[in-house]
């Protein structure tokens, strides 16, 4: 029986991870779950899966939760609680499914405790990729991708050595506004932006898909996960989200992973790896789909992707700034404080004013993240 802890159990990835576990009760047990403030759902989850540890965002929520749960389930809260669920249980695998670089300390704690990581929280790798991968290397811990594109690349690579790889290509759906002109983007609403054509996901990543920042974060994520230089990572528009990404090898062969857009498949693969198990996901019929389409990526149309590539190539603290500015800009857009196109202005402003620091330590990353957030919160008000 594999023991699992989930950071962000009440979110889109967290609930789908529990769906996978529910479908395989003989194979998985839940050791710990951490959530933010959805107290009703986390109560239900704790009563159903009986983890040893549960954590929520605040002391008040923890007090409420304790009164709803049997005594043997220990309830923690706050940043320490999240770290306790990441590192303080007997879990073999920790699924990192909180949103944003707030997931960095708990991901590092899980790695340092020797846990296999099912990595959904891409922002941790973007903000501190060299530190996360170095901790994993030193501890001999696997970072198993959950992000659909990276799971596809991981499956397509199938352990082939780096020198046989010519290029990694990430597919991009184009998000909610893929067929709108930049002029039309001036008027879009939050409700429009939250309508992703293919995937049902949390709000922040859905906006990232619409700005193409998601693909930018994923390029940097691929760089760190697969130790690949940026000039051997590319992005192609693929509106159907059926080919989840592909690898071209040096002999020109291309190997791809395909499937209906359903996150339970990559989540399950990270939990069962290297095994495969039946999935409740619907089977893909290419004959029914008829055709798959592809388009060249236009970096003028999607400047967030260009800025992500630039940040990745600059390295050091540049991706930290890209990520922090994006997180704040998206939160402001979701609150109705700034228009959609200002998201990219906030990121561009943050990158322009930042002097990149090479090989930053953790303290420097935290400080750059903090300063970037402070500026991004008030610029273009
Ligand atoms: N959704 C998807 O299909 C995909 C997501 N990802 C990545 O996975 C990550 C999660 O995304 P997604 O599931 O969509 O996000 P959601 O917004 O749906 O979920 C975020 C989770 O984090 C929890 N959380 C918030 N604050 C805290 C806190 N202080 N302590 C502990 N937990 C907290 C939330 O709890 P609560 O709701 O209780 O407040 C919720 O469980 C992101 O990094 C995203 O980029 C990657 C690929 C696909
Ligand atoms: C499901 C998943 O992995 C998301 O990151 C998804 O890739 C978003 O799709 P696009 O960013 O391609 O719109
Ligand atoms: Mn993805």
TrEMBL record:
One of its GO terms (molecular function) is 1-deoxy-D-xylulose-5-phosphate reductoisomerase activity. Pfam families: DXP_redisom_C, DXP_reductoisom, DXPR_C. It comes from the Bacteria. Keywords: Isoprene biosynthesis, Magnesium, Manganese, Metal-binding, NADP, Oxidoreductase. Belongs to the DXR family. InterPro entries: DXP_reductoisomerase, DXP_reductoisomerase_C, DXP_reductoisomerase_N, DXPR_C, DXPR_C_sf, NAD(P)-bd_dom_sf. This is 1-deoxy-D-xylulose 5-phosphate reductoisomerase. The gene is dxr. Residues 4-129 form the 1-deoxy-D-xylulose 5-phosphate reductoisomerase N-terminal domain. It comes from Paenibacillus wenxiniae. Its EC number is 1.1.1.267. Pathway: Isoprenoid biosynthesis; isopentenyl diphosphate biosynthesis via DXP pathway; isopentenyl diphosphate from 1-deoxy-D-xylulose 5-phosphate: step 1/6. Residues 258-374 form the DXP reductoisomerase C-terminal domain. It is an enzyme of class 1 (oxidoreductase). Residues 143-226 form the 1-deoxy-D-xylulose 5-phosphate reductoisomerase C-terminal domain. Mn(2+) binds at residues 147, 149, 218. 1-deoxy-D-xylulose 5-phosphate binds at residues 122, 148-149, 173, 196, 209, 214-215, 218. HAMAP family: DXP_reductoisom (MF_00183).
């Amino acid at each position: 029986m594999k023991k699992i802890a989930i950071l962000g159990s009440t979110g889109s990835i967290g609930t789908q991870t529990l769906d996978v576990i529910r479908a395989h009760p003989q194979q998985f047990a839940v050791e710990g779950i951490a959530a933010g403030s959805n107290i009703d759902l986390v109560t239900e989850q704790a009563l159903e899966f009986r983890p040893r540890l549960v954590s929520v965002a605040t002391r008040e929520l923890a007090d409420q939760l304790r009164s709803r749960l049997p005594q043997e389930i220990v309830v923690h809260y706050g940043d320490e609680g999240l770290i306790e669920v990441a590192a303080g249980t007997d879990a073999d695998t920790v699924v990192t499914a909180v949103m944003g670089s707030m997931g960095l300390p708990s991901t590092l704690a899980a790695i340092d405790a020797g846990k296999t990581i099912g990595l959904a929280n891409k922002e941790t790798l973007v903000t501190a990729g060299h530190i996360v991968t170095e901790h994993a290397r030193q501890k001999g811990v696997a970072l198993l991708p959950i992000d659909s594109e990276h799971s596809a690349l991981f499956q397509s690579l199938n352990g082939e050595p780096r020198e046989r790889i010519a290029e990694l290509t990430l597919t991009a759906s184009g998000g909610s506004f893929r067929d709108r002109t930049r002029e039309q983007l001036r008027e879009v609403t939050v409700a429009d932006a939250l309508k992703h054509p293919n995937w049902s996901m949390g709000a922040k990543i859905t906006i990232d898909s619409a700005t193409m920042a998601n693909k930018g974060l994923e390029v940097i994520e691929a760089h760190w996960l697969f130790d690949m230089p940026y000039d051997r990572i590319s992005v192609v528009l693929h509106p159907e989200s059926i080919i989840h990404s592909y690898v071209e090898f040096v002999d020109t062969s291309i190997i791809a992973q395909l499937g209906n857009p359903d996150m339970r498949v990559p989540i399950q693969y990270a939990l069962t790896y290297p095994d495969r198990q039946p999935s409740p996901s619907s089977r893909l019929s290419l004959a029914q789909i008829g055709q798959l389409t592809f388009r060249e990526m236009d970096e003028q149309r999607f400047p967030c992707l260009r800025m992500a590539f630039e940040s990745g190539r600059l390295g050091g603290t540049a991706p930290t700034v890209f990520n922090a500015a994006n997180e704040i800009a998206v939160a402001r857009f979701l609150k109705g404080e700034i228009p959609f196109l200002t998201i990219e202005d906030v990121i561009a402003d943050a990158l322009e004013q930042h002097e990149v620091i090479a090989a930053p330590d953790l303290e420097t990353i935290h400080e750059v993240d903090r300063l970037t957030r402070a500026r991004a919160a008030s610029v273009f008000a």
